[in-house]
Amino acid sequence: MGSDNTKKTEHQNIQLLMKLMRSLCWVILPALLLASSAFAQEEKPKRNASAPGAKVYIVRPTDGKTVKRKFKVIFGLTGMGICPAGLTAGDGTPFPNSGHHHLLIDHAELPALDVPLIGDKPTDIMHFGKGQTEVMLDLPPGKHTLQLIFADYAHVPHNPPVISKKITVTVED
Description:
alpha+beta; Immunoglobulin-like; single chain
């Protein structure tokens, strides 16, 4: 008989716990929704200034070039310096006139330039957050476009944005 009472007590405790959890859900869920909507309405990140006359460009390959399936892309930059993503001065401020490259492959239009550049897949927007200045690409045969955007420590393009000319390459079969 003692075990029946124990089972009854355990069952009551589980029911009480479930009731408490349902009650908490009604408190926590609206709070989470409110917090997420407040986050969504936050101001966009501050865009750091680019250096006057700064330019980013693709050194190689050149526009209109026919390339093998695997080919090297070399990035060029004048007027600003390379700095890994996330790196800031001791006080948390970004290093002025610095940033890292982002390579757009086959983008018909530029992405939003007032928010961090985020790619859905590695070939969408390639991030070079370690400060890399070249990459080996392996693209399928056909025509492809390449374009660089230089962005700050938080992946946000500078103001005004430093963007290369879009080039077209043809990858051989």
